[in-house]
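I am still getting used to backbone structure tokens and would like to learn alongside you. To get us started, please write out a protein record for me. Start from the sequence, derive the backbone structure tokens from it, and show both lines together. Once you have written the record down, we can walk along the chain together:
***
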Amino acid sequence: MICMQKHVQVDGKVRTDPNFPAGFMDVIEIPKAADQFRLIFDTKGRFVLHRISDEEKAYKLCRVRAQNLTSKKVPVIVTHDGRTIRYPDPLIKVNDTVKVDLATGKVLSYFKFEAGNMCIITKGRNTGRVGTVTHVEHHPGSFDIVTVRDSVGHSFSTRLENVFIIGTKDSPEVTLPKGKGVKLSILEERDLIAKKKKASA
């Protein structure tokens, strides 16, 4: 009903289909309720609607999936959400992340896939964890492995295609949901819940 009344916008466009597929990094907006969210993963690998500011709703981050020339020799990049962007900066390569203006579809800036940059994991057991890329291992004929260190010093490894760069060094380009992408152990979670119960009692 809300969709049919044209109250819901995904990436700045009105969507009336309640089954419209929204995905990672999409901006979902309900202007009548003054609500705007970014669809992002929490550390348990679940999609969460993370409330964002007016400035942040104007753009999204897109991972570059492919880079090629059209039949008329126009350079294009294809992003994880299906966008095809013509005449990109020649320094943008596959696996890099581009910051896209939702109103114009133009690339505002880009972040290289390299050691030292901040990333979020989008697949596998570590989905939703945020950290800094420390090392990339190349295995020709097999899966390249990326080692990531989170903000509390825990290191973990995942496949290269699971890594989504979200900013440089310690400054993510998007705000992060509760927990800031740090995965707690079972014992740490238990202690946190106990502390909350004690505080509310």
Remarks:
- The chain has a mean pLDDT of 92.
- The longest helix spans residues 186-200.
